[in-house]
Amino acid sequence: MQGLAPSSSSLLLSIRQEHALRIFEGAKQYELRKVLPGERFKRVYLYETGGSGVIGCFDVGRIIKKPLSELWEEVGPAATTEERFFSYFGKSKEGYAIEIRNPLRFKTPISARQLNGDFTRLVPPQSFLVLEHGQPLSTILETERSLTLQTSLPQVTLQEIAQEQHEAYRKLVYRHISPHYEDIDNSFAEANLQIHKRGFDPAGFFTTRKEVLSIYNARKRCIGFTTLTFKSGGCVKTGPTILFKAFRGRGFGAATRRAIEERVRNDSCRKIYCTCPNNNETTMRYLFASGMRIEAHLEKHYAIGHDELVFGKLLVEDKGRKIPAPSLKRKQGNIVLPSAVKKKQLIGDFIRMFRDTWSPISKGVARAIVEQSLDPATLPHDKKPKRLVCLKSGVNCVGAIALLPKRGGAVKGVLFRSTSHRPSVRKLLQSALDKATELNGRKLYFLHPVLDSSAILLMRKLGFRAEGLLRAPYRPGQDVIVMSKFL
Fold first, then answer.
1. Between 153 and which of 164, 215, 255, 340 could a Cys-Cys bridge form, CB atoms 3.0 to 4.6 Å apart?
2. CATH 3.40.630.30 in the chain, residues?
3. In sequence order, what are the residues at sequence separation of 6 or more whose Cβ sits closer than 8 angstroms to the Cβ of residue 365?
4. Which of 479, 223, 180 lies closest to 358 in space, CA to CA?
């Protein structure tokens, strides 16, 4: 039943109180079942065991049927603990997982007594009950769901920001972001608007484009803004998402989060993520409630005064994709300046190594990064140029580290290579540390594929430590580790 499309019927499931609570808190993203009906269903209503009645519902995403070991590998802690998982299924050979989307709790549970009448009679199900569209019981529950939606989350829509709203966006972003991060001025918001206007990022590692969107309520009034940064491989970074003060604490934030997910799903995106200061409890609760989970805890990352949390949520599971290992040759290289490699050769080598390590990159982006490293003065004064540390063997660049200074003193590094010669790669990493120090960085961090254990081991020997594991951020099936070192 993997990927089975739901129909118009619904399901009534019996569920224990503690499991229902985890669903509505966003902590439980899959509901496990030993058996399910053969019919397709679009929604699940939850009957809380113990007599409370029908307490809410959720929309159905994927329905996964697999042998238990494979099912645990795919849904794992997003459903329950390992002990509870195997205890629940017992001697079963396979099981089902229902993906939970848009959980909704009714303000008041609907008891079996309330549902019993001349045309309806609810017998609490031992496991499940199929509710066909148009049946009296189904109609009653659908009506309650509609009423709850009307009174719980307000209606919002997302639209491309209008030219006359640019100044309001700059001011709101500056007021909201600058207290939490160092080196923030109006250029931060302006850069978002400029990339949005171009329709592409001319020199991003993974960024392909940005969308700056206005948030409107049901009365067509602009109540805030959000920014979506689209990454290679179907990933989207969300934020900053900021509401005007008058509309905070009224459900518009959660409604906006739901609208964002719907928008990016329709754009075939498979993951969303965002970052948040670890001292911002309001935003953290809001992200947890939307089903996002912490993937990395970055110490003193964008500011000395606080840490940064990376939240992520897969909208589409990876389905066991396998990433082929890159073809590496044992070539010894020497550390050189980018100018020591012919520009055309460097661009070609850059494209090949980046493709093998991460994903395809356009020639235009590769050229922009190479040209920045050759002549940083060509960029405007408010831009931070990318720098390259190169490993040369013969006429070729067989390894490189691209460095991007970030706000607050952190320097982001991306390693790619076509050589397996460990001493040369170690020298490359050490040169990146030296260059990051020259750039007045106080912390160097790498994002690197977790399966490349040899490079990660070299980083550990140089004093880097793991700060998190990002689930398939830039390529389906390729998890990425964050390795960091303070300078």
1. 255
2. 156-314, 334-486
3. 202, 203, 204
4. 479
DSSP 1: -
* pTM given for the model: 0.72
Beta-bridged to residue 481, according to DSSP, are: 448, 469
Name the pLDDT band for 465 (thresholds 50, 70, 90): very high
Single-letter amino acid code for the residue at 201: D
Start-end of CATH 2.30.130.30 domains in the chain = 10-152
Superfamily of domain 156-314: Gcn5-related N-acetyltransferase (GNAT) (3.40.630.30)
DSSP state of 401: E
Q: What is the DSSP string of 113-125?
A: HHH-SSS------
Distance CA 236, CA 238 (A): 6
Beta bridge partners of 242: 225
Superfamily designation of domain 334-486 = Gcn5-related N-acetyltransferase (GNAT) (3.40.630.30)
Contact between 393 and 417 under an 8 Å Cβ cutoff? The reply is no
- Write the CA distances from 66 to 35, 95, 135, 319, 447, integer angstroms: 12, 6, 32, 11, 32
pLDDT confidence bin for 383, thresholds 50/70/90: low
Instruction: Please provide the CATH number assigned to the domain covering 10-152.
Output: 2.30.130.30
What is the rounded CA–CA span in Å between residue 289 and residue 427?
45
DSSP state of 318: -
- Short-list 48, 58, 43, CA closest to 16: 48
Angle, CA 265 vertex, CA 259 and CA 266 arms, to 5°: 90
Q: Give me the percent of the chain exceeding a pLDDT of 70.
A: 92
Note the pLDDT tens digit of each residue in 302-361: 888 899 999 999 888 766 567 777 788 999 999 999 999 999 999 999 999 988 888 788
**Is there a contact between 385 and 372 (Cβ–Cβ < 8 Å)?**
yes
Tokens 């964050």: give the residue: 482
What per-residue confidence (pLDDT) applies to 4?
41
- In terms of Cα–Cα distance, which of 268, 286, 266 is closest to 276? 286
